[in-house]
Amino acid sequence: MIRYVYANELVNFPVLADSMFRHRAAQFHDRLGWDVTVDENGHERDQYDVLNPLYVIWEQPDGTHGGSMRFLPTTGRTMVNEHFLDLTDGVRIESPLIWECTRFCLAPDASPRISAALMLAGGEILRGFYLDHFVGVFDARMIRVYKMLGGSPDILGMSGDGPDAIGVGLWEFTESAHAKLMRRAGITSQQSETWFRTAFRDAAAATMKAVA
Q: How far apart (Å, rounded) are the C-alpha atoms in residues 176 and 123?
């Protein structure tokens, strides 16, 4: 199932959080060789994880991480604006209608449907928060995956050659992409919407309880 969890709520999902950060280390540090930090717990974290981002996480039946993405509003600090302005000709991407999506990560044994489920959840965020686009940094290896899933970005700029080239792109969510992702993920529109509504209904209830 898909969970929508803010960073300050991860304490309520210790197994899910631990496996997510371990899988991030395995993917970005071990397999891709990125210059990222892995702590003594085997977790890959960076400066943006402390900004209380929203994580979209596929939770496996045993409670572990199957795949995830991280979202931050572009009205605050973002990776694109602080590290990749060279790819946007110095133009900062800042809008209440655009969020940044980073750290797209899959568990080593993740099934292909999990990628589609995560992108479908991204569409729920766009609709649920009344956004126009996501902005994200990606490597060229992902272009084929995005195209296959029906969610190719509008590329703003790229640097480098071959599969290691890095790009910045904007994503929107079309009805045709929505239908394609549902088929690939094996998830109904009703189920996807229910996971989203339930997550934020429960979060609102917890906030009201804490204030009372």
A: 12
